[in-house]
Design goal:
Strand order of the largest sheet: 7-8-9-6-5-4-3-2-1-10-11-12
CATH topology: TIM Barrel
Distance between the termini: 27 Å
Shape: globular
Bound molecules: S-adenosylmethionine
Radius of gyration: 19 Å
CATH class: Alpha Beta
Number of helices: 9
CATH superfamily: Aldolase class I
Length: 330
């Protein structure tokens, strides 16, 4: 039974756990200059041991899914140790990850063998040049090869995410290209509406486009909205009888987006964040130092949850303490 419930009756079986702030890509909307060490930054991310203690404790709160994120989770040298420990020792039934697909062709087999249960890969454009401009890396092909390898290994839960960007991937022509990609490919492709963060206001003003444009495209092309499953998150999913894959949409500015919130976040430095755009984070790291602190840790997480607000108020321009998504684990 899930004991993580907030004052609005929402349940939280799902944790997004960032394991590093470091990212090797330079996505124009997130870290356009790349990850930079700020003065005093010791890169003191949680150790594998602290993460292990944390995930074991979370499983006792009924958490049944953890998504590893970052930064870019795969840049951590002990990434596979963390993943394997979580799969083998934590009692969390589902461990997934969000990645920019870095070296996916090389590590696909290892991910499968470690028991990863699902992967979200960020691909903002299927055009090699556009991809390169957006990320600073000419790596589209290695990601696509990596996806093929995963599919050959019968890896089931593959999702591709793209941030919807004005003039870059928001034309009907772009939508058709993504459609061709999932036509005979059992992959969920989802657009995420660009979110304003503390760092990207100018970029946001220039490049944000409402997800309505994609919704209109889906309706015009006979995609059918799938109703939410019991523990589904805030994404809207669409199916079509001619397509093996699904389209999806994550529209944080839409009305009622937060009603289906089912996730909490823990940053790479061990702060519990109740909302991606909340104003506070509370450190739980001091309670990850030895095994007999577990009860205190569980108590703190449960108490904190009562402070979770009803909405992120993003539509009012509130970005909370989120400077960019790599620091919170998008
Ligand atoms: N490095 C990994 C990756 O690229 O998927 C994981 C971290 S990244 C912060 C997670 C997701 O957040 C990516 O899909 C990225 O495109 C998305 N993202 C980052 N900044 C965003 C923003 N301002 N608005 C919407 N999505 C954003």
């Amino acid at each position: 039974m899930n004991t993580l419930t907030d004052t609005f009756g929402r349940k939280f079986p799902y944790i997004r756990l960032s394991i590093t702030d470091v990212c090797n890509y330079k996505c124009t909307y997130c870290l356009p200059q790349g990850y930079k060490k700020t003065p005093g930054d010791k890169r003191d991310f949680m150790s594998a041991e602290e993460i292990s203690r944390l995930t074991k404790a979370l499983s006792e709160l009924g958490v049944c899914k953890i998504r590893l994120t970052g930064g870019e989770p795969t840049v951590r040298k002990d990434f596979f140790d963390i993943l394997k420990d979580m799969k083998q020792n934590s009692n969390i039934p589902k461990v997934t990850m969000t990645t920019n697909g870095y070296r996916l062709d090389k590590i696909a087999q290892q991910l499968h063998e470690a028991g990863l249960d699902g992967i979200n890969i960020s691909i903002d454009s299927l055009n090699r040049e556009t991809f390169k401009k957006l990320t600073g890396h000419d790596r589209l092909q290695e990601i696509l090869t990596g996806i093929k390898i995963l599919q050959k290994l019968n890896f089931k839960n593959i999702k591709v995410n793209a941030v919807l960007l004005k003039g870059i991937n928001d034309s009907y022509d772009d939508f058709e290209k993504f459609g061709n990609f999932i036509k005979n490919n059992k992959i969920d492709f989802r657009f995420i509406e660009l979110m304003q963060t503390g760092d990207n206001l100018d970029y946001f003003k220039k490049n944000h486009v409402s997800s309505k444009i994609f919704k209109d495209y889906l309706h015009k092309n006979n995609w059918i909205h799938q109703t939410h499953g019991k523990d589904a998150g805030p994404s809207l999913n669409f199916i079509h009888s001619d397509f093996e894959g699904k389209f999806g949409l994550i529209a944080p500015y839409s009305k009622d987006f937060c009603k289906t919130c089912n996730r909490l976040r823990i940053t790479s430095r061990g702060d519990l964040r109740l909302c991606l755009f909340g104003n506070t984070g509370i450190s739980i790291r001091h309670l990850l130092q030895n095994d007999n602190q577990k009860e205190e840790l569980l108590d703190l997480v449960i108490k904190q949850l009562h402070l979770k607000k009803e909405s992120h108020y993003l539509e009012l321009g509130n970005t909370g303490i989120t400077t960019n998504l790599s620091s919170t684990g998008g």
